[in-house]
Amino acid sequence: MRTKIEEQRPGNDSGADDSADSGRRGFIKTAVVAAAGAGAVGLLKPSPAEAASDPAKKRYGDGPYAAEGMALYSSAGPHKVMKFQRRALGPKDVAIQLHYCGVCHSDIHHGREHWRKENFPLITGHELAGVVVAVGSSVSKFKPGSRVGVGCMVNSCRHCGPCEAGMEQYCENGNVFTYASKDRDGSMTQGGYSTFNVVDEDFVIDVPDVIGLADAGPMMCAGITVYSPLRRWSVGPGRKVGVVGLGGLGHMAVKIAAAMGAEVTVLTTSSAKVEDARRFGAKTVIVNEPGADLSKFKRSLDFILDTAPYRHDLERIIPLLKLDATLCMVGAGKIVEPHQIGPFSLLRNRNSFASSQIGGIRETQELVGFCALHGIRPTITKISREKIDDAWTKVVDKAARYRFVIDMAAA
Ligand code: NAP
Ligand code: ZN
Prior knowledge:
Elements: H1 19-24, H2 26-37, H3 48-52, H4 55-60, E1 65-72, E2 79-86, E3 93-102, H5 105-111, E4 128-135, E5 147-150, E6 153-155, H6 161-164, E7 176-177, E8 196-200, E9 205-206, H7 213-232, E10 240-244, H8 248-259, E11 263-268, H9 274-280, E12 284-287, E13 301-306, E14 321-329, E15 352-355, H10 361-374, E16 380-383, H11 388-396, E17 403-407
Parallel strand pairs: 10-11, 10-13, 11-12, 13-14, 14-15, 16-17
Antiparallel strand pairs: 1-2, 3-4, 3-8, 3-17, 4-5, 5-9, 6-7
Bound molecules: NADP nicotinamide-adenine-dinucleotide phosphate and zinc ion.
């Protein structure tokens, strides 16, 4: 059973609100009202009579389920509607009607084959948010009506050291990613730019009532990808933290690091984002344009989280680290254009260059709770699924403010 978390939303500027969805999604509204009447907090438990007449159950059954997604048929695009099926419910599976999916730059790296050759057709998207409509026989954490999210992973081996430690993202036997990954039945996974998914409950995140589903999506990748290293490198009061790149990940990093009590410095290449950076919680904003003099910020930062995709000049950024401090790179650009670090860049201040990949399931749940507690929400722009190509262009052009989120119900 989830606990209700009191909402404090000083940083909520997304304007996101799921209330408009309820009209369009009558069966969900019915279920939520029934739960509220029964005094339930989050999890829904219909009476046997309600369950028998539950339109969602009648409509969805145990699958397989018809789904529609926005697929790429080649790396050149554009996205086109693809009809396909999600698997029938296994004992531990939950079937999720997807309402929203955030648009991550990783979707673009995959879709444009920046990292490797891909199998097409490909539906990307790993910031899923929706409502459970049916559950397998052994599911214990969720019920029809549960509000949930799914991030970058949908399975892992469960028994290696990292899995047992709650770090499924580092599974020694290879985890199953939400898209472009070989599933346990040998098929390729398809992602969240779609209407429906079926996911093992162990890889499903509970979304508390205070967080709108549109806001929950970007927490599943952008949020956890920055939260995990901020925690790993002990960001908190008294620490000065640099965030490179004010995009989907970067703006969440600023909000989260500020809520952790750190003093945040943003390095942006976009002078138009300075005011936003301050609004999100940055004390100092450096416009890192070619030729800009960063010398007065030398040795000023305890930790830098670099979220910029594509190769950029790290030699300008590393000198900002204090003695023994770490630069953690979470941005991941084209495989043919790796970053360069000269032989003297790190040794002058005994600095470390590190990286980090998303976060585990437990930690993602923790991050969602952290956001609920501290009133942190992504700053989002909702789009219809037809606008996905336009959104990708804007993301690459640094014009996203700050995360596009596909609204599956929007025309
Ligand atoms: P995003 O929304 O496009 O934000 C990236 C920001 O970086 C941009 O807004 C821009 O900020 C800056 N930037 C863009 N191009 C740049 C360039 N050529 N040189 C310098 N700065 C540039 O992207 P995102 O969704 O946050 O993802 C960022 C990166 O993280 C991607 O490479 C993505 O694949 C990766 N990622 C990694 C993980 C992981 O597990 N490690 C998870 C998710 C995503 P300014 O305008 O402020 O300069
Ligand atoms: Zn992502």
